[in-house]
Write a structure and sequence with these properties.
Structural class: mainly beta
Largest sheet: 17 strands, mixed
Radius of gyration: 22 Å
Oligomer: single chain
Shape: globular
Helix content: under 10%
Number of helices: 4
Order of helices and strands: EEEEEEEEEEEHEHEHHEEEE
Length: about 400
């Protein structure tokens, strides 16, 4: 079965494409020979006008049974200036039909490279040599008496000396606690650790996920899908990583000055970072009214919450492209930083022609307090951040 797919960015213009999901008749995402693929044509006709993505998954019968599949997965894509090719072994343990109770391990090898930095919203966050990556990831989900618990861990080693051998690992845990029918407390812990020469696209920012993981989402994959002036304003956040959302403007401002100043500057990048994010969701009358609307109430939700984020980074990265860069030892490491505020999130979830979720959420956060504001700012001030995200596989 095929479905149309349309994107836009500054290099390709409109990307017109078609996607397909293929599997053996009578199976539902658990049979042999599973295909997930797409191909696109760029209307601006850049140097590489045709792009593609393909993923093929084959279960291994000897280690698979109902809910406990082992499989080999092949992934290949060349799109938006990035070449990525991977072979991966997956093993999942899931008792019964409860998809919120499982454990999954993946071991992979990939070769990948940025070949056109025009696609990147901030190209100084990237190097363009080939990477040969060995990695292992683990994720789990468990329904506890008081709420859902989720955990994720990943460790990756680059063995290609051309791009600099490095190792980076990330850890993430999430716990939802249902305080009552209307109040939910959500807690998220994050830690990222990298070796001394970890590539810039894998280094950590206070406010957003590392640049490498922007490729996992169609909205953040390339410059122009979200208009670049909006990104450069500092009011848009690519959620993830340490996720100290109140520091988005500062991180983007540092990125924006890299090619405009001869002063002693540093990237807003860290070799390691840990953080704690917490939200308390509370009821609001707008969501109550939304849920009472026929059909729309089944597809949309408006959440309201208070939030507090805190964390600390180490191994701040110097920028080498400016004049008179100070030695690393002269740049003091910042201590613990935090923010607090109030936010709204509206989410939509509409399955497409292939039965895949085409959901999107839009967040509007007001981090009215920062522990470490810019010199020209007050700790208490009105500032806002808009976050966009989607559940889009391709």
């Amino acid at each position: 079965m095929f479905a149309p797919d349309v994107w836009y960015n500054n290099v390709d213009g409109v990307r017109l494409g078609v996607r397909t999901l293929g599997e053996v008749e009578g199976t539902f995402k658990d049979g042999p020979h599973r295909l997930d693929a797409g191909v696109w044509l760029s209307t601006f006709l850049p140097d590489l006008p045709v792009s593609y993505y393909v993923s093929f998954t084959e279960p291994i019968p000897q280690i698979s049974n109902f809910g406990n599949e082992g499989s080999i997965q092949l992934i290949s894509s060349i799109r938006t200036g990035y070449s990525h090719h991977r072979i991966q072994f997956n093993k999942r343990w899931q008792p019964g039909f409860d998809e919120y109770k499982y454990k999954e391990v993946s071991v992979y090898y990939s070769t990948e490279r940025l070949f056109d930095d025009e696609y990147r919203p901030f190209n100084k966050l990237w190097q363009d040599n080939w990477k040969n990556l060995f990695g292992i990831s683990f994720k789990m989900s468990e329904t506890l008496d008081f709420g859902l618990f989720e955990a994720y861990a990943d460790a990756t080693t680059n063995v290609n000396e051309t791009s600099g051998a490095f190792t980076v690992a990330t850890f993430e845990v999430l716990q939802s606690i249902e305080l009552s029918d209307q109040f939910i407390w959500r807690i998220r812990g994050f830690a990222g650790i990298g070796s001394d020469n970890v590539a810039p696209e894998y280094r950590f920012m206070a406010s957003m996920r590392p640049a490498q993981y922007w490729l996992n989402n169609g909205l953040s994959r390339s410059a122009g899908t979200i208009p670049q002036p909006w990104m450069e304003s500092g009011s848009f956040q690519i959620a993830g990583g340490a996720n100290l959302r109140g520091y988005s403007n500062r991180d983007i401002e540092l990125l924006g000055t890299l090619q405009q100043s001869d002063n002693n500057l540093y990237f807003p990048l860290y070799r390691s970072f840990w953080s704690l994010n917490t939200e308390i969701e509370f009821p609001n009358p707008l969501n109550t009214a939304l849920q009472n609307i026929s059909i729309i109430g089944d597809l949309a939700e408006l959440r309201s919450y208070l939030f507090v984020d805190g964390g600390m980074g180490t191994g701040r990265t110097l920028m080498t492209g400016t004049q008179n860069v100070a030695p690393q030892e002269l740049i003091t490491e910042p201590g613990f930083i935090a923010d607090a505020g109030i936010g709204l999130q509206i989410s939509f979830n509409i399955p497409d022609y292939l039965g895949k979720d085409r959901g999107i959420f839009i967040r509007y956060d007001v981090p009215f307090w920062l522990s470490d504001p810019l010199p020209r700012e007050n700790s208490f001030s009105y500032r806002h951040v808009i976050g966009l995200g989607a559940v889009i596989s391709l």
